[in-house]
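User: Working on a comparison across species. This one is Plasmolipin from Alectura lathami. Can you predict its structure so I can line it up against the others?
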Amino acid sequence: ALDGAFLCSPLGGLMGAQAVLGLLVWALVADTTYHLHAAYGWVMFVSIFFWVATVLLFVTYLLQLPLRFYVVPWPLVLLIFNAVATALYVTAFVTCSAAVQPTSWRQWDYNRRAAASFFAGLTMLAYGVSTFLSFRAWKGLGSNAATSQVTD
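Assistant: Here's the predicted structure for Plasmolipin from Alectura lathami:
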């Protein structure tokens, strides 16, 4: 059964946004002559890899598979995934933004690359927020060591 509550949760909403924004990044870069610039190869790798991984995680949570595979520490997996995605999207955003050349001889390439940089920045922010929320979920939503040591 599909988990309808997941779609309305912050995690589900952010994963959906990451998938849409990541798709925009690699589609806009792929529609240019990116093969002429080595920097865009890195942007394509990061955006496509994390788009596929995010879609797979989204489907995993939508199908409630973490309940069946309870041995896997899912909050930690999400924390590591989102932290790595944020770090690599920072590099992809900086690379994509630095490689945009306003004096390009193909104006449509400039527009698409500039839009890809913008959406890479939004995707980076979405993964950053997910990292923060994943950290809070992994930590235990506000619990600390003192409250976990208290016994009745």
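For your comparison, note: Confidence is low (pLDDT under 50) at residues 147-152.

User: Helpful, thanks.
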